[in-house]
Protein: LOB domain-containing protein 24-like
Amino acid sequence: MISGRCAACKYLRRRCPSDCIFFPYFPPNNPERFASVHRIYGASNVAKMLQQLPHHLRGEAADTLCYEAECRTRDCVYGCVKTISQLHQEINKAECQLAKTRAEIAFISSSGGQGRTTTTSTSSPITSSTKF
Amino acid sequence: MISGRCAACKYLRRRCPSDCIFFPYFPPNNPERFASVHRIYGASNVAKMLQQLPHHLRGEAADTLCYEAECRTRDCVYGCVKTISQLHQEINKAECQLAKTRAEIAFISSSGGQGRTTTTSTSSPITSSTKF
Structure:
């Protein structure tokens, strides 16, 4: 019988003990979730990382390990550091746009509202690039 | 003689072969860099990940693996996913601020430049929160 084993024990072709460290976080119906962390960290490292945490934090830790492993599988060079880098760029863009928009306000204010046409044309492009 | 061995071979107490996969990316003067990736991924997984990449991409991969490992060491639950989440929050804040600032422009434009006082008071706080 193989039913009742978690995805990790199924993958590792071993008996799933009643106190299996993987069981609550790697259900049998999602084998790719375990395969992914196993590929990047190895089963024993994942077990070690989960074991050193209190029970109520293990689910979140398993989720973030899976996320990082999936990113690393998709991008073997940059992993989820690529996402961090892209988000920094987005923030820089948004800050630039904010500065420009504030400059527009100053311009409109100083010109007594006569700079309306310039305003609408320069403040349009950034919203779409900061969407995720 | 132990000189000439890379940080990985020193850490693993083994001879450092001339074609050592770790040597170019884990210099002996930075033992913590290897200790960090070893703690999270294990030496064999790091070697495997580097080996599957062309030489010119291995340095960047080693750097991003070190970054992720250091984040995971500092925060065992969220690792660098915490940074990603914080950056998303910063972007949301910046977008909100941008929308508010645009609404101010519309208001000033429609009131013929008479909304100057409101403008300067509401557009000030975001810049500091989007700095890193």
Notes: Chain A has a mean pLDDT of 85. Chain A touches chain B through 49 residues (CB under 8 Å). Residues 81-110 of chain A form the longest helix (30 residues).
